[in-house]
Amino acid sequence: MPAGAHIAGIVTVLALIFYIVTLVRAGQARGRHNIIAPAMVGHPEFERAYRVQMNTIESLVAFLPLLWIAALFFDAYIAGALGIVWILGRIVYMIAYMADPSKRTAGAVISTLAVAALLICSALGLAGILI
Which of 1, 52, 68, 131 has the most neighbouring CB atoms within 10 Å? Predict the structure, then answer.
C-alpha cells in the first residue's frame, strides 16, 4: 500500500460520520414534525434536512471512489487534503441549507471542486500507470 494511504481510510471514516450526522438530523426533524414514513414532505425543516442527507449521498457516490483512486495511484496526502476540503464543503452546505436553501452555493461549490480535483488526480495517477 502506498505511503500515506491510511489517510484515505481516515477521511473515509470522517465522511461517513458526517453522512450519519445528516441521517440523524433528518430523522430527528421527521420525528419532531411528526412526518410519518413514507412521506417525504411536510415541514420545511424536515425537507431541508432530508435534502442535505440525500445530496450528501449523491455526492458520496463520486467522492469515495475518487478519493481512493487518487490516494492509491496519485498522492495519498493530496487526496486526503482534498477529502478534508470535501467534508468542510459539505458542512458549509449543511449549515447554509438548513438556514436558507438559497445560500447553499458556497458549500456546494467547495465540495464539487474537491471532487473535480480528485477526478483530475485520479485520471493523472491512472494515466501514469498506463504510460
Answer: 52
Enter the C-alpha cell of residue 79.
487526496
Cβ neighbour number for residue 91 with a 10 Å cutoff: 15
For residue 119, pLDDT over 90 is answered with yes
CATH number at residue 63: 1.20.120.550
Cell of 48: 431541508
Total of domains in the chain: 1
- Output the nine-digit C-alpha cell for 77: 496526502
Enclosing domain of residue 50: 6-130
Q: Is the pTM of this model over 0.90?
A: yes
Query: According to the model, what pLDDT value does residue 59 have?
Result: 98
Residue 44: is its pLDDT beyond 90? yes
The DSSP string of the chain is: --TTTHHHHHHHHHHHHHHHHHHHHHHHHHHHTT--TT---SSHHHHHHHHHHHHHHHHHHHHHHHHHHHHHHT-HHHHHHHHHHHHHHHHHHHHHHHH-GGG-HHHHHHHHHHHHHHHHHHHHHHHHHH-
